[in-house]
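This entry is listed as follows:

___
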Amino acid sequence: MTDSASVGLLTDKYELTMLAAALADGSAHRRATFELFARRLPYGRRYGVLAGTGRLLELLERFRFDDAALGALADFLDPATLDYLGEYRFTGDVDGYAEGELYFPGSPVLTVRGSFAECVLLETLALSVFNHDSAVASAAARMVVAAGKRPVIEMGSRRTHERAAVAAARAAYLAGFAASSNLEAGRRYGVPVSGTSAHSFTLLHTGPDGPDEAAAFAAQVAALGVQTTLLVDTYDVTAGVDAAVRVAGPGLGAVRLDSGDLGVLARQVRDQLDGLGATATRIVVSGDLDEYAIAELRADPVDSYGVGTALVTGSGAPAAGMVYKLVEVDGIPVHKRSSHKQTDGGHKQALRRARHSGTVTEEVVYPAGCAPHTDGPARTLTVPLMRGGRTLGHTGPAALAEARERVAAGLRSLPWEGLKLSRGEPAIPTVRTGSPAHP
């Protein structure tokens, strides 16, 4: 995604000026614990989906400052700080929620421990990854819930930065999307890729006598087979469906609708396809869909959905609202007391309580190593992710598949009201136990 030479510069200037000051006064090597969490969910959301863990762990192992990066910093950093950065390697420990876990306000989804110097440099990188990927995954999960058992395809690459598009495709797949149009997401992460043609291909088949939609369909079928998806709304939908079945036969895989009143059109097209004998031909819809539009189409004969802009922009919540805060120095809890931005100090872990049916009831955040007694089912959420700067386990396609299953299981565990798309309180409360006293 990013070449290793530039990873160290994926940060903000103030992290380096803090480092310089801490090196100068001798505090840089104090043992520090930073936590990444969301104070609250985006307005009206009932849960979040954690995404980006695998990407961050891969980036941490490559977080370096080469000669070119150091040259770019020399105008404001002193030689001692530049020397430190030239030798920088993250050698600390990372704990957190496994990727794909649901999270709620105050969930300690990532804990970074090491010297202040090595941990403070990671703030912007960690927040950039988690705020983007978790926002996309949270929106994607809502769309998957709205779609029921019908597949949803990610097709938002053209609506975001070219590199963010790859991360968004990964996050959407993690949250339950069936495929992506993005080829780099397929190569890098093993995300299934999908795509056939755009309106331009149909328009290409225009001659002196005017448009020849049937010729465009014939060319696509010849290249991709009758199981392809034909885009039938370039001109007139009824004529397009008729031409599609005439060219491909009743075994045509699917038709796609990308504009107009999709519910009305889907019903009309379903009747037309059935009348033409194409009873197994699927209907795919796309065009500015979000979770609410998908929910409105659930009663219509739609077989799958393509989503772009709303997904890659978080469907109204483009950032997950996570923060990265220092909570402990040399084992001493530290607390931020700013108005409306208070933090609870101390290294924390979490577990999730549930009923015997499996439905979760509350998130419990507690001082590390002091898990509370629980009478009913409970599951520890905090797991080791990195030790001594080395990632534990794997971060590739197999890990992504596991995270995908984790999201699905998490959604199944929510109380039914937690799956509502309407605005409301978080699906379960976050309870804090045994918080250390403020110094």
